[in-house]
Request: fold
Amino acid sequence: MSKIHYAWLFMRRHKYLIAIIVIALIVGVVDEDSFLNRHPRRVHIDMLRQEIANYKQQYEDADKKIRELENNPRAVEKIARERYHMKRANEDVFVFVGEPEEEPAPMQEESEE
Reply:
């Protein structure tokens, strides 16, 4: 008998196993939604969820400041004085600007000569 005949007999006996293996390869590797493509997508989704959480926190902080400004007139004065350097008619405002801090030089390894 020829090799083709033996291959045909093998395929007839194990047709379900071969079908399961082919389907698993298609789903696992070749398909657009394969397991290989799922991991980068999952990482991207986690990153977007973290970004959403950060934006929600920023929104809550801004909303809290807006409510404080609407309810407290002293808060408006405080922000006007701090951010815009506004002053009352009978006072002077001095703005102190600090010198930028120098970054320490990176440590260099001494080479043995």
About this structure: Helices lie at 3-13, 15-30, 35-71, 73-84. The chain has two domains: 1-31, 33-87.
